[in-house]
Amino acid sequence: MRFSEFIGNKEAADRLRKQIINGKAFHAYIFDGAEGIGKRKLAYTFAQALMCKNSIDGEPCQICDACKKVVSGNHGDIHYITTDGSSIKDEQIEGLQEILFSKPFDGDRTVLIIDKADTMTVRAQNRLLKTLEEPVGGVTLILLTEKISELLPTITSRSIVIRLKPVEKEQIKEFLLRETETDELSAELAAAYSWGCPGKGKRLLDEEDFKARRARSIVSARAIVEKATLTEFMATLGEDISGKEAALEFMEMMSFWYKDLLFIANGMEKSYIVNQDHYEDLTEFCKKTNLKKICRILEKLEDTKYDIMMNVSINYALKNMYLEIN
Ligand SMILES: [Zn+2]
To answer: Which residues place a Cβ less than 5 A from the ion ligand 1?
Structure first.
């Protein structure tokens, strides 16, 4: 991949590309951002550019031996580790140290990518710190994190931090239409529900029940105001929102329904609507309710999401939400 092909976060990609042009790669980087935002892609692009024998304008050439090896996953001097179980353990970092002190296999540089680096145990972090305090020439370390705050400040302060921000919906939609065989509406929905992460958008398209989950969320969203009883409302929820993550996604989907109503009530164009295939339906629904109520429901949905995040029982949080709205 090239930096110019990276989806969103142009500033971050350019910053790295310029370091290649100037030949001034630092010894440690942290790429921080949500799951699916493209941290691994960016890390491998950077690694490829570092290894490339003929990089042009900071971009990997894609045709030299080194570039080809990176693409096929066979470059002997690029090492990747991730969690062993739920964390990265001290022994794994110990294993890396051996690589650090041996000569590169192919050229004059070694790249180490540590994925989910924020799960490193404190012992593992302390061991890694020693490496950062006495950097070995020709070694570039790339730590990928979702929660940079889990890293020791002594590690963060010795690294260049690249923060990856959520990508705009339109950019994700274009990417999905280009990279997959999906249709316009599915790309629109997956982009909207991806939380700004292209990788997550792609994964949603692969999930067979994504559309079914969304359809169920709409039934529940409508039930809040269509005079369903509490029991009827709870019955629309189904069993698959018993987990925290699934419940939060469900809440988010319901929020989209009400945000769409808000846009319609404010006379905004159809292109702003997420649930475009329900446009007529939403317009009709809008007549049955009012702006004040829509805003109130959105507020309660946000409160409920927060409660669920704070580990309040999902069942209790949803019942409470229904009763407060009605
Ligand atoms: Zn190359």
So the answer is: 52, 60-61, 64, 67
